[in-house]
Amino acid sequence: MERHDIESGLSVGPQIRGEDVRVLAQDGVRAIICNRPDAEGADQPTHEEIAREAEAAGLEFLYLPVTPGLVSDQTAQDFGAALERLPKPVFAYCRTGTRSTTLWSLSQAGRRPLPEILSKARAAGYDMSGVVRRIANGGKTPTDTGDAHYAVVIVGAGAGGIAVAASLKARAPDLEIALIDPADIHYYQPGWTMVGGGIFEARQTAKTMGSLIPRGVTWIKAAVAAFEPQNNAIILDGCRVVKYGRLVVAPGLKLDWSAIEGLEETLGRNGVTSNYRYDLAPYTWQLVSGMRGGRAVFTQPPMPIKCAGAPQKAMYLSGDAWLRRGVLKDIDIQFMNAGGVLFGVKDYVPALMEYVERYDATLNFFHTLTAIDGPARKATFRVSPPNEEVHTLTTDFDMIHVVPPQSAPDFIRVSPLADAAGWVDVDQATLRHRQFDNIWSLGDVMNAPNAKTAAAARKQAPTVAENLLADIAGRGAVAQYDGYGSCPLTVERGKIVLAEFGYGGVLKPSFPKWLVDGTRPTRAAWLLKEKLLPPIYWQAMLRGREWMARPESLPPAAE
């Protein structure tokens, strides 16, 4: 007998027989729902037979039949009401379990997020993409069939989304483009490290979204609920439908603060901060500038994360501030890294190690933050060195800079666009989806093995623009992305190690070595980060001006 857990208190499965009822009772099941009409199959037990066995075993039984392909809104409501009334655990069945799972999914609409419903169904082995519009519509069959349609739809108005919209408009001014994003404010996130280091003001890193949407691009201020790539459709919250000729997916990634026990309750107080949030970066500088002694802990979660150097940038700028104030000797700096190396590209490690030693920081590898007790100022880590027993470590702190675990957004992770790990599945050179030919992706959400940085998105946007327009013209891909990413590692106030690299850790410097030696800390790289990169971001990248970002041509296919 097959049995698949949907959630605590509910499991589903295919047709059962009398003897299965006794097994279910032994397993603790207290109620059975039959969603299969009688006489669907020649050897199928009737619901009365199962009901008698259930009564004999002391279980409650409900007959709620569903004809294949005809799951009504009322039946879904009745299923939800039954789940609330019946004793738990409940087992529901039909021919395969799909109808039972569909009823549960529709009954939960409006009670929990759509991605959660899809995720639980998928984990149990059932694909609910066929009823996603109904789930998005509160579990009811949509009556509005009027779809908006655009030649190109872009999901996400972050760095990648706006940049690709601007690059498309620069090449094809008459192209009909819609950009979907619910946010009112757009942030220059690379600037938050500088805010936490006391160099930038937070307000310098934020602009209204409306001021940045390229002219001629329709802004749809809404959240995406789901994708129907087989229908060239996007389902918005509220079950509005937007159709597209071509789709670009760039919603960024999810910062999973809740994955660390106790973190959300103490963020922004008790010495707990993070440069990964606009409202918290100023608190980082407040803590650093006020600290005279004690233990400062800096964490880095498992990869992938956006800007992999940012966790240690916070440490370096803090150490530099304490060194300049003459209090560093009284501060114990601990860097807790879930990974096994300081930086993934070895060419930059020697320069970084000089600063680790300068600030007398202790490097702790294979340490993953799992819990924080803010009032007690204690942090707990899972320590998992290779070939050693996993154990936990709890340490005190006076200040802790936390970088949360990161993943693809929930609505991406459960969509048909995602790979097994939840990221949008693309060809790493052309950035075109591997399964759906009229979809591209860029930025932090896609699965190409590059660093997730704004500099990477700056290079990716023209590649996507050129390949998308070539597709509209009936041609194959013409541009390729080489994995370029840049991580300006702020090792002290006034100096930066400018890490620039592509796929496989190959160095890709933008400047001659005599001007900027990326493997060494330089003043020139600092000036680039402080003075040039912000205006390049606002006035060039987001405006379709591709300074030092022209895409590389794709070599012609072999005959």
TrEMBL record:
Biological processes annotated in GO: sulfide oxidation, using sulfide:quinone oxidoreductase
Q: Which domain of life is it from?
A: Bacteria
What Pfam families has UniProt attached to this entry?
Answer: BLH_phosphatase, Pyr_redox_2
The top of its lineage is: Bacteria, Pseudomonadati, Pseudomonadota, Alphaproteobacteria, Rhodobacterales
UniProt protein name: TIGR01244 family phosphatase
Q: Name one GO molecular function term.
A: quinone binding
In this chain the Beta-lactamase hydrolase-like protein phosphatase-like domain maps to 8-110
Q: Which cofactor does it need?
A: FAD
Query: InterPro entries of this UniProt entry?
Result: BLH_phosphatase-like, FAD/NAD-bd_sf, FAD/NAD-binding_dom, Prot-tyrosine_phosphatase-like, Sulphide_quinone_reductase
Chain ranges of the FAD/NAD(P)-binding domain: 151-270
Provide the alphabetized UniProt keywords: FAD, Flavoprotein, Oxidoreductase, Quinone, Transit peptide
